[in-house]
Amino acid sequence: MTAVEHIVFIVDDDERIREALGELLASHGMRAVAFESACDYVKSDKPDLPACLILDIELPDINGLELQRQIADGDHPPIVFITGHGDIPSSVRAIKSGAVDFLTKPFSDADLMTAIHAAIDQDRKKRGERAELDTLKRHYLDLTPREREVLPLVVSGLLNKQAAAELGISEVTLQIHRRNVMQKMAAASLADLVRIAEKLEIPITHSRRVGGN
After folding, report:
1. pTM of the prediction?
2. Nearest to 212 by CA among 162, 164, 171
3. Is 84 part of a structural domain of the chain?
4. Which residues contact 19 (CB under 8 A, 6 or more apart)?
5. Is residue 209 part of a domain?
6. Among 6, 69, 113, 198, which has the highest number of CB atoms less than 10 A from its own CB?
7. Residue 212 in domain
């Protein structure tokens, strides 16, 4: 990984810690931006890059665990907690809420870097999945109303004849709509279309009838 591919945010009220972490990350070719309070971090403009948030537990304006709770529903990078006052309940709460790691000062550089790399890799994967879903949603919006009716019938396993009967159209017309759905959704196969429908959480309300032709 190189500095232009990701960023590390540091939130710690101890200037010495911020400087030390910044120097450590710089020595590994990683870009870092430091804040002395949770408020400063929340208000800052953040680049659209895979990221990691190194977050102290004890901050002047808000507890780090509380900040984790407040931003849980938003688009925020994976968190690596650092603290000089660690305890088991806090670490359990942090990890259960999705933190990558919970490190008690003094911690080793190796442990911190391992956690940071894991967090950035996790964020990169999440961003990739989100980008794929956004693309699928745009493809879905390109479907006509009729094609949106055809899609769930196709992925449910109904035969063309059954799906056509369900919609009150001819089998030939159904096949045309089905082909258009496959093309617009960029599905390479029926199995691929099923996977896409699952990602889009399209409800399947029909099932293939036994004995159908």
Report:
1. 0.77
2. 162
3. yes
4. 34
5. no
6. 6
7. no
Please say if the pLDDT value at position 131 is more than 70. yes
| Residue 212's pLDDT band (cuts 50, 70, 90) | very low
Q: Which CATH number is 109's domain given?
A: 3.40.50.2300
33 DSSP β-pair partners: 9
* Residues 32 and 5: beta-carbon distance below 8 Å: no
Q: Whole domain around residue 167: which residue ranges?
A: 143-200
Question: How many other C-beta atoms are found inside a 10 Å radius of the C-beta of residue 67?
Answer: 24
The answer to whether residues 114 and 150 belong to one domain is: no
Residue 167 in any domain: the answer is yes
In this structure, which long-range contacts are made by residues 70-74, counting pairs with CB atoms below 8 Å and at least 24 apart in sequence? Answer: 71/42, 72/97, 72/98
Pick from 130, 121, 125, 28: nearest CA to 80: 121
For residue 153, pLDDT beyond 70: yes
